[in-house]
Amino acid sequence: MSKFNTARAPAATSPVRGEATPSAVTHQGGAGYLRDTRAELFLLAVTNMVGEHTFYESAATRDTRYAELVRQSTLDDPQWTARFLRWLRSGAHLRTASLVGAAEFAKARRDAGLDGLSRQVVADVLQRADEPGELLAYWISVYGRAVPKPVKRGVADAAVRLYDERSFVKWDSAARAFRFADVLELTHPAGGGELFKHILDERHDRGNAVPESLATLRRRAELMSWDVGRRRELFDRPGAAGVLRVAGMTWESVAGWLQGPLDARVWEALIPSMGYTALLRNLRNFDEAGVSDDVAQQVAERLASPVQAAKSRQLPMRFLAAHRAAPSLRWGWALERAISHALANVPALNGRTLVLVDTSASMNNSFSKDGSLLRWDAAAVFGLALGRRCAKADVVSFSDGYWDRSQGTKVFKLRRGGSLLGDVERWKSGGYFIGGGTDTVGAVQKHFANHDRVVILTDEQAAAGDVGKALPAHVPLYTWNLAGYRVGHAPSGGAHRHTFGGLTDQAFRMIPLLERGRNADWPF
């Protein structure tokens, strides 16, 4: 009998590698598998908002672990780490984690007496005009005011690329410890012309007039000179939107300029020049102000545009947050289209798929201080999106039924022709966020019925048992990690056991590759 030349594809490998047998325990006492440095760093970074507590780790513990992993990875494989940090900002759309990572990369290289790479890594992760100051503020708060040349030069490169009149009026603020002028004085970027000179003049109150060449700043100064009592008169005139646009006035700055609420006519003047993210975050404000249906339709068309959605680099969860903040029916279709664009890489899988969504208490934990994005919300979004694309899927919410022993798991019935956002809201209102502990082994054993694959969306902190051994060895187990803790619940990297992570849809592309017997690599 043939042992190797069989119809089943050989077990392919994936990049998140861990040990084959458990040598640790999870936070809930289950069998725990440790991972290599790159795998642990990747899973932590792609779910790390920096400075935020998680259910099992304090912010300080988590941030220290992240910095140590970046430094170790930098010494082990600087080229890989450089590519990873660039992707973390550009592909995973995580700003603070990439900035901190770039600083720690430079620190590790400097401490080891190594030249090269740091300047490029720092410059690569700085992609918004407030970020040069953010990175310097981090460095000085952690390592003091002696900023090494590669960091200064990387920041200077970014400042030349990012600083213009509009970014200056948008992002420079006395509320920031490092203002644009502070960045310029510390890093001494070449070029910048009259704009950089004006930024320094204004910071030091030298009283110099705005140069003629800086048209945006001059128009803004004109608007700021208007008497407060007559500023709303601007919106009685045709072309108000153009006046505001030329002056680089964002909706936040207009609110401060008017010193009062933004009514419908103000919003309707602002909307044509607002960016995608600003539109997404203000849908409720548009409704409350009474923006007309015609203008709302224009907003909806921009939100639904695949090109606009892709350029915005929004995480899928942001569309769910917008939907919950502004449940008006006039935004529903646009947000459904937008989240579908953000999840375009979710594959259509043949055969039968068991999708297990962890809704234990540790998953009822926010990614950020505002609490708008919870880990179990993300698990439900990704799990339901996958279930809707599969030829046949069983989607199950699980915990351990601590609060109700009769309900450790709950099967979610997918409906043909429904919407993803509608499914997520039905999940929420139907009691599928269970709470309690994490009996992953019990959920697998209860619901596995000769499926072709099992996908578990979880923080991996399973209770008693060994998740890696809960399935027959030949059945692929794909774990989607949403927390980045040090210890995993199963082997990973081969032998039909694979772990992915993150808050975007990119890693989903690995599943079809692995099932065709092709090795999957890092997404960068």
Automatic annotation (TrEMBL):
Domain TROVE: start-end pairs: 24-351
Region (Disordered): 1-29
UniProt GO MF annotations: metal ion binding; RNA binding
Transmembrane regions listed in the UniProt entry: none
Subcellular location, record wording: Cytoplasm
GO cellular component, one term: ribonucleoprotein complex
Gene3D superfamilies in the record: von Willebrand factor, type A domain
Swiss-Prot/TrEMBL keywords: Cytoplasm, Metal-binding, Ribonucleoprotein, RNA-binding
Principal location listed in the UniProt entry: cytoplasm
Entry-linked Pfam families: TROVE
SUPFAM superfamilies referenced in this protein's UniProt entry, alphabetically: TROVE domain-like, vWA-like
Family as reported in the entry's similarity comment: Belongs to the Ro 60 kDa family.
Protein name (record): TROVE domain-containing protein
Source organism of the structure: Amycolatopsis tolypomycina
